[in-house]
């Protein structure tokens, strides 16, 4: 910044520039009175993002300094927008009052004109470290991740700072993409010299990622001598944890947010899905990036933010352990079978505040009296639920476990209830949140200032009477405090030396006075008020300390409430859509009866259309379904609905089908031919092939793969060849369950050699010249593609369709002559052992056409030509003379 070269910066400029440098790549919010000001490039960037006025102030190096500012009281909403736009913000607060600054100057022997209020960066606001309600989405976890690689393994430390939930795991370097896709972090921190992190990663000193220091930090945070009770963590995990905690310390300027004991996550305990699969299945957001149109958008019936966040976690990481899945399903079943109790439960849950996030704010030191009130209310409701549910008969194990975690806060809630007013404010600086009767000393202080206020009110009446000025008023403002005010024309009487009033201020039309008595009462109010505030503040700190001490139990109750909400919400969804409980099996079958796509079905329902349910029956000896049929016929929908049903089932949800038996799937892959993804703008065919290669490298025989028009992104020949080879590899090498949608009729020939492959198609009919898509799956190959009919349906002009018809006729004629584009496939080594198919005997008509084609007319005499005609006529059956 040119500013640094300035020969003699003013003290304020020098201070600003020092903080500016410290803020690094973050925007600097520089506190000046009631505003946060931004200068230079920061101002230009922020003004553009926030759409606020860019002004100038003073000059620096001969140039006007660009400036913009936001009011402190509404800073949160501006922060939210800056964070969303990808900025980080350093908050520089005034860390002393002007009086303190003056006193300091005096001590240091500086002239008071030279002193500047001390400022320091008190916090970095970054996307991954937010706790403020206004900056967070209630239904989305906000995850910060730190990564550290040790000998080919990447340690991953992930924390949701808003609730303190922390998970440590490890993965091979080449599967990091899939893990990050699952975690979907809003911020990733990596060592400065490591280049394998995601593009937008934040680089931090390598030294902060040391595993032994990481272990020490975790022990210190949790006050334990060993981490063994939490799990056995690898060095890579601890290195990542070290980097994570150091970063939190850095952005919080020495104060750490809520961190719950780390949970060890076995990467192999959940279904693997890579980023491409997650994207194409639109699990947590649609292709447009919205919740609407995504799987969770169609499934989520939770009534609390915490419930929705847990459901998102469940759907992001479906389980592999049949017993754990059954435990969740049993919880859903319990509530599914009890509609009345379910409605009651949901009513109670709906009113419960977001305990986890209130706790997060309180522990981070950003809690308000309202947060304490939320903890009080939420924990009391949890206890009430405990009482109610304990008596329920036939509780499944997970419910019993959840219920057990709802209590144990009696003393705390009791204390909070006695201490706090019914609805405490979000601001604590003006007090008023500690209940009357909680602290006798506070009551007394309040009584004192109450008395004084009443005394002042009485004084006004008395002064009016004594002076005979009916319009005399006792008023209050921030500068003078209390004063007596009369209109200018009445002022003389009070000006008299013996009046008992002292003059303070003359305004246009009014004059202000003080009196000894008023001064005394005002002082009483100020003193009592100050003491009362200090008193409330002390109580607040004590309550916060009590909450902090109980943080793990509170977090456990919050998690239990979320699990209850997810169970009941899934039951609600199942009841609403008549979804069934899936049967979980350990084999490699997949039997879905009358399956539906939850998102497409919901979208159709809005326009009053019905979704056509379809079955899917895969088994070891019939594990690859090749699905043909017209565009728009429902192929993609069918593929995805089956993948989603598997995903839902293993996440412990009921599924949109009338019956489903799911052989556990270890990895789920979904690939969509590149043509659907043109918007991505990269070499889409390249992307498609890279993603397809990943399947071939990673899928196992227990995986489930859906391939939608793979090979479409390149020329017909290349595409067909690749689709063919991929289908063969999936069938014969990987031998996993697979649904493969394609418009290449030629692929049907795979059925001749692949014994576990069968042919299916989505049905369509042409009726009175129109195409009717039935969206119904049937056995056997597709008879034709209906491409032109689809084009007409889509509104392609009639003359263009007519022309296409003519071109098609020509193409088809050639195909007949040459055997089509797959004609040469019989020579592939794979087929070399096969007996060449017997050529079909040519029909008399074909023989005739062949002879006609072969005839060299120029070489014939008229007589020979006539003879040929007679001969041909004779060979055609049923043609007499
Ligand atoms: P394809 O992959 O064969 O081109 P899609 O699966 O994309 O076809 O389906 C096209 C449209 O048809 C969908 O957007 C949906 O509106 C409708 N559709 C698909 N499947 C069904 C179904 N089973 N029942 C009713 N409508 C369906």
What are the key terms here?
single chain; 881 residues; alpha/beta; six-stranded mixed β-sheet; 26 strands; 44% helix; disordered N terminus; binds adenosine-5'-diphosphate
In short:
The protein is of the alpha/beta class and 881 residues long. The protein has 29 helices and 26 strands. 39% of the residues are buried.
Notes on the structure:
- This protein is of the alpha/beta class and 881 residues long.
- 44% of the residues lie in helices and 18% in strands.
- It is built from 29 helices and 26 strands.
- It has a six-stranded mixed β-sheet with strand order 3-4-2-1-5-6, with helices on both faces. Strands 11-10-7-8-9-12 form a six-stranded mixed β-sheet.
- Helix 11 crosses helix 20 and helix 15 (397-404) packs antiparallel against helix 20.
- Bound molecules: adenosine-5'-diphosphate.
